[in-house]
Specification:
Blueprint (H helix, E strand, L loop, with lengths): L3 E8 L2 E9 L9 E5 H6 L11 E7 L2 E17 L2 E13 L5 E3 L1 H6 L2 E5 L4 E4 L6 E2 L3
Parallel strand pairs: 2-7, 3-6
Antiparallel strand pairs: 1-2, 1-5, 3-7, 4-5, 5-6, 8-9, 9-10
Length: about 140
C-alpha cells in the first residue's frame, strides 16, 4: 500500500493539491518532490520550462531516468484540511512517472514519520496521532 499524504505544491503564483507517495528509497541531498508531466502542466512548468531548470539523469531501481530539476518551489503538508509544515523544495519533473513521490529529505522537512508502510500509517514527528494514508 505505501504511505501517501496530501500536499500542496506551489511554484510562483500557481499551486496544486495532490496525493504523493512517501518514498524513503528516493534519497536526495535536499528536499525534492518528483511529479509527472500532468502535474507540471497544472503548475505552468511544462512544456515551457523555467530558465533555471537543470536537466539531470537520476539512477532509479528501473534504470537511468532523465528529469528536469527546478528550484524555488514550496511544498506543504495538508493535515485534516489544514496546510502545515511549509518548506522550500525542488520540483523534479519526470516523463516516466504517474504519481508524485516525496524524497527522504522532504519527508524529514515535513516531519513525517512512517508507522506502518504496509498499512499506509504515518504520524507527525511531534504528535502521537497515527493517521491513515490518502487514497
Amino acid at each position: 500500500m505505501g504511505v501517501r499524504v496530501r500536499v500542496r505544491v506551489s511554484y510562483g503564483n500557481e499551486f496544486v493539491d495532490l496525493v504523493a507517495l512517501v518514498n524513503t528509497g528516493y534519497e536526495t541531498d535536499v528536499p525534492e518532490i518528483l511529479i509527472p508531466v500532468s502535474i507540471a502542466e497544472k503548475l505552468n512548468l511544462w512544456p515551457r520550462l523555467p530558465e533555471d531548470t537543470v536537466v539531470e539523469t537520476y539512477k532509479t531501481a528501473s534504470g537511468l531516468m532523465r528529469v528536469y530539476r527546478i528550484p524555488g518551489a514550496r511544498v506543504s503538508l495538508i493535515v485534516d484540511g489544514v496546510e502545515r509544515k511549509i518548506t522550500e523544495s525542488y520540483i523534479v519533473i519526470s516523463e516516466y512517472v504517474d504519481e508524485a513521490l516525496i524524497s527522504d529529505q522532504l519527508t524529514s522537512a515535513l516531519s513525517i514519520v512512517i508507522e506502518d508502510p504496509a498499512k499506509g500509517l504515518w504520524r507527525l514527528k511531534e504528535e502521537h496521532i497515527v493517521r491513515g494514508g490518502e487514497k
